[in-house]
Specification:
The complex is a heterodimer. Chain A is mainly β. Chain A is built from no helices and 3 strands. Chain A has a two-stranded antiparallel ribbon with strand order 2-3. In chain A, a hairpin with a 4-residue loop joins strand 2 and strand 3. The model of chain A has no long low-confidence stretch (mean pLDDT about 70). A 12-stranded mixed β-sheet of chain B has the order 7-11-12-6-5-4-3-2-1-8-9-10. In chain B, strands 13-15-14 form a 3-stranded antiparallel β-sheet. Chain B has a 3-stranded antiparallel β-sheet with strand order 16-17-19. Classes of the chains: A mainly beta, B alpha/beta. The interface between A and B is large, with 22 and 49 residues.
Chain lengths: ~30, ~475
Amino acid sequence: MSKCKAVLDSKKITKIKVRVKKEKKVETQKKG
Amino acid sequence: MKTTEIHWEITNKCNLHCSYCRSDSGKPRPNELSPSEALGVLQKIHKAGVRRIYFTGGEPFSRLDFKDLLVESIHLGMEASVITNATLIDKETLKLIKKLGVGLNISLDSLDQSKNDEQRGFGVLSKTLSVIEEANAMGIDLQIYSTISKKNIAELESLLSFAKNKKIPIHFKEISSGGKLTKSYDGLLSSIESKHLKDFKDGEFFSDESCWADGKSLFMTSSGDLYHCNEICVRQSHSKIGNIKTFDFDHQIPKKKVSKLACCYGVNINENSITLYNTERDCGLLEELNKPIKTLKELYKELDDCYNGIHKHCLECHENDCMGYIWLLKSEARRLYRNGIPTVEINDGPTFIHSFPTNGEGEIDVTIRYPRCGQIDCSNRECLIRNKRPLVCRLYPVGLETLETGEVCWVTHLDCLFVKKMIKEGTIADFEKMMLSIIERISQPILNEIVETYKMVDEISSFPNGSNNFKLLKGGV
């Protein structure tokens, strides 16, 4: 579970969704 | 619950070799506390509010610094008593005990020399009786401790009479299996004999079969391991609640609801004697400790108890852990979001605590290595959401990893300062047993969710330069 020392593989990432309650919005960032 | 009493097995070393010894005494345990560590423990438990110590063993007086520890206990203002076979006590020791006001609880199983010495060793009875005589004459606070087996059940009256004549309280304890004493031992009482002991009364009496292991009183081994009571230590040694070297009395006494639990021992408190008899029930607390972990909240609690004392090591740690990919179970992601913690979901799959930098175009870069966790205070490494922190943080240094064969395993991460300390002190095996006892009780639905989420994280991450440093804990998850 110590994936903290791993690196996320950019080639495998197609979609990133940031959730921030304070701003009451969901941002979607398309990748690849 | 504030701890006020410690039953401290000060050493496992013993000069006698009683075949029925439940403590399995003889040789010292590995890693027994050194003289300076033991003195430090006295300071620590006194500061924590402990006001009474019951020293047990082994034979406490076989420990060379034991008298120094008695002196320090009293000097600190604590009360102390010692369970001893009395064979190593000389006149000077008795004078010291009298001066300190320490109580002596002396083992005596029979007044018949051949019977007592058969159990305890040649010449033991005469030495024991002479110490009892001398200590009694000096006005030392005395109790006689008799272990009642098939071999001396017929002597209850004579032992009581001996004690009453000398105005010394006597403590009868039914023999039970554990330690050196196996279930095939020929001295175990039959059910009729056991009932006879239970029914043995001496004037006015009070009976109690409830569990008293509520944290007010703890049992500590000679290597500093702490247990709710010595029964848990004998029956299930991995269920310790921590080690005194790292134990935080202010925050980490597990609160067990023992008020409704039945004990494996019953007690009859009589005018001149106390009788402890086996109730033929399993330990209620042990049953409680072995319950399946059915909710995430229960799992959090078990882990927090197990990692007693880890916090200070986290604050001193300079490793890159607590940085980056703190992944969340679905319920955790929802909870943290509700609590205002920013999160990042990737590929409609795993969610992480948002710890990633944003580039000039406002896009976040999730591929950066070692991003510091967004919930760590940079100035002091304190976790800003410690009470709300997710499973992955509560589990660390234990976690899931995938071997080259593709097998998902539970592992212990070796970069952790807490783990390094345990390896140095030789306590890592105990820790691993404790962790396994937790892992193996996680109910299937929770385990499935953990493993499935881990696999999704594993799918999109890797260790580019092989820096993952761990030791296998349990394979085949």
